[in-house]
Amino acid sequence: MTSYLVRLAAIGASLIAIQAAAAEYPKVRIETTAGDILVELDDERAPLTVLNFMQYVEDGFYEDTIFHRVVNGFVIQGGGYTNDPDKDEPQPREGLRPAIPNEAGNGLSNQRMTIAMARTNEPHSADSQFYINLADNVALDPKPTRWGYAVFGVVTEGIDVVDAIGHTATTIKGGFQNVPAAPVIIERMVVVTDDAD
Question: Over the stretch 18-58, which tens digit does the pLDDT of each residue have?
């Protein structure tokens, strides 16, 4: 009987370890001029969105892009524009891939410190741009009569950095409102593994 219980406990421990390993989500460190932000991505609930984001990360697309929209108490948005000091407004980053399907109905909500895909009024128009919620913005979640904005992860480290960016002084630059007066640049994004950060 004792050996049976020992074997049963060992099987249970193995199953717990397998489940814990399966629950590992991809992590990306967003290195900015304001500090680092670590995000954990939910590739189970938003597989297409995470795949799209990770491809942009691995391609180096986000290097030298800016947070071009900062609305205190709402969101910080980036991933689609660069700062050219010789131009009067942010410049679009070249190299966009096709837009992805909207995964807003995945059960994840636009809560404070979640990361989600920005898009136009067209529901399936998200490409590279993302935003981080500075507050609980459930008005951005889907409703039965309209599409929402797809959440695909959460900030796990660097919350103070996100909040600091959210308090950045902003201005109008060309056709853009709420642009940080001093650019907040995404220097690079790095996929983080447990073995090496």
Answer: 444 445 899 999 999 999 999 999 999 999 999 999 999 99
Rounded to whole angstroms, the Cα distance separating 123 from 140 reads: 12
Domain boundaries, the chain: 25-192
Count the neighbouring beta carbons within 10 Å of the beta carbon of residue 103.
25
Residue 122 in tokens: 């067209």
Q: Is 69 exposed, middle or buried (0-12, 13-18, 19+ CB in 10 A)?
A: buried
Q: Tell me: domain 25-192, CATH 2.40.100.10, correct? A: yes
179 exposure class (CB count in 10 Å sphere: 0-12, 13-18, 19+): buried
Q: Each residue of 152-162: pLDDT tens digit?
A: 999 999 999 99
pTM greater than 0.90 (yes/no): no
